[in-house]
Amino acid sequence: MHVKELLSLKEKVVLITGGEGKYGRCLTEGLAEADAKVITASPFLDEGEKVAAMFRERGLDVEAAFVDQADHESILKLKEELKDKHGRLDVLVNCAVARPVKGYNGTLEQWKLSMDINATGLFDITREMADLMAQGGGGSIVNIASMMGMFGPDLTNYEGLPEKWKDQSADYFFHKGGMLTLTRYLARMLGDKNIRVNAISPGGIFAGQPERFVENYTKKVPVGRLANNDDIKGPVVFLASQASAYINGENILMDGGMHA
């Protein structure tokens, strides 16, 4: 098969959670540019509709849907909507993330809410959408993790900034690390259903951070910068497509060589 065909997502139905967010928009754009039918789902339907409309104006096939990842019934409703409207699901990209915990001393209530969405909800939506994938003969799951799921916080990135920048919340590190182990678990459990499961662990993406942070961060990165909006497009299209057909249970660390 020609490499362009291997990387094509033409006629593929792709669900991305949180596709209206910072990384989500980059992912949604890349998947749609690879000719997929992309559905972005989150509780923020109005914002999702705006993002979908923006991409449709460019001729990309993107639509928005509602889902509350902490609500099992909401996940089941989305599953049925996808089945009724599209007949199948080929790719799931787990990008949605909630950040309710306010620093190291955040309340246990904040922690529980984070786990409801980022741990229990992640597993719930993945299991249900994997079932829909299996009904159509298989597919690919791509989990958007983080280098923070692989390494502890580097507090030197925040030198010269207010102390609050160093107050990193533990839940993000906890559930992104768990996502990597879940990726390997699901790769084994779903293999007989012709479903591959992989992850991408991005480093920092430039989003208008203070100049001092950018200076602290980029001097540790061999490529000399934070990630930009295009950097994650290639990895997600690769893992979603047949170009990665023999890659399963893996994690791509996308940090510009910071941890080389």
The gross shape turns out to be globular
CATH superfamily: NAD(P)-binding Rossmann-like Domain
Mean pLDDT: 97
> How far from one another are the termini?
33 Å
Explained architecture:
The chain has a seven-stranded parallel sheet with strand order 3-2-1-4-5-6-7, sandwiched between helices. Helix 6 links the parallel strand 5 and strand 6. The protein is built from eight helices and seven strands; from the N terminus they run H-E-H-E-H-E-H-E-H-E-H-E-H-H-E. It is globular and about 55 Å long. With 260 residues, the protein is an alpha/beta fold. The model has no long low-confidence stretch (mean pLDDT 97). The chain has one domain (3-152, 169-204, 236-250): NAD(P)-binding Rossmann-like Domain (Rossmann fold, 3-Layer(aba) Sandwich), CATH 3.40.50.720.
Write the layout of secondary structure elements.
Blueprint: H1 3-7, E1 13-17, H2 22-33, E2 37-42, H3 45-56, E3 62-66, H4 72-86, E4 91-94, H5 108-135, E5 139-144, H6 170-189, E6 195-202, H7 211-218, H8 233-240, E7 251-254
Parallel strand pairs: 1-2, 1-4, 2-3, 4-5, 5-6, 6-7
Helix pairs in contact: 2-8, 4-5, 5-6
Summarize the structure.
This protein has 8 helices and 7 strands; from the N terminus they run αβαβαβαβαβαβααβ. It has about 260 residues and is α/β, with parallel strands linked by helices. The chain has one domain (about 5-150, about 170-205, about 235-250): NAD(P)-binding Rossmann-like Domain (Rossmann fold).
